[in-house]
């Protein structure tokens, strides 16, 4: 049983790494017509995308782009998180009238 399991694992590795030697495809059974043009287009797009990515990169993940932070004198490596202030009610009581379920009072 172990030998069968090992054999299946080895066959799955071999089948996933299959590549043909004739250059007629990438091993997936499809033809490669038009693939060279598509590869060139993809390379051009990736070069443009990498240039665009440099402009919109955000290293500290504070949703402010590094370019914006540098222009405004902020540190692009430290997150600029807004200060959140919250006030909680203290010393209050809730008065409920059990006869009328829609009426209650909050006394502060």
What is the number of E strands?
2
Task: Give the termini separation.
Answer: 74 Å
User: How are the strands of the largest sheet arranged?
Assistant: 1-2
Radius of gyration: 32 Å
String of helices and strands: HHHEE
Percentage of residues in DSSP E strands: 5-15%
pLDDT below 50 for ≥5 consecutive residues: which ranges? none
Helix content: 25-40%
Mind describing the biggest β-sheet?
A: 2 strands, antiparallel
Query: What number is the mean pLDDT?
Result: 71
Description of the molecule:
By secondary structure, the protein is mainly α. It contains 3 helices and 2 strands, in the order H-H-H-E-E. The protein has helices at residues 2-16, 35-55, 66-71; strands spanning 93-96, 104-107. Strand 1 (93-96) and strand 2 form a beta hairpin.
Topology:
Blueprint: H1 2-16, H2 35-55, H3 66-71, E1 93-96, E2 104-107
Antiparallel strand pairs: 1-2
What keywords describe this structure?
flat; about 110 residues; mainly alpha; about 5% strand; 3 helices; two-stranded antiparallel ribbon
Brief summary:
The protein is mostly helical and 108 residues long. It has helices at residues 2-16, 35-55, 66-71; strands at 93-96, 104-107.
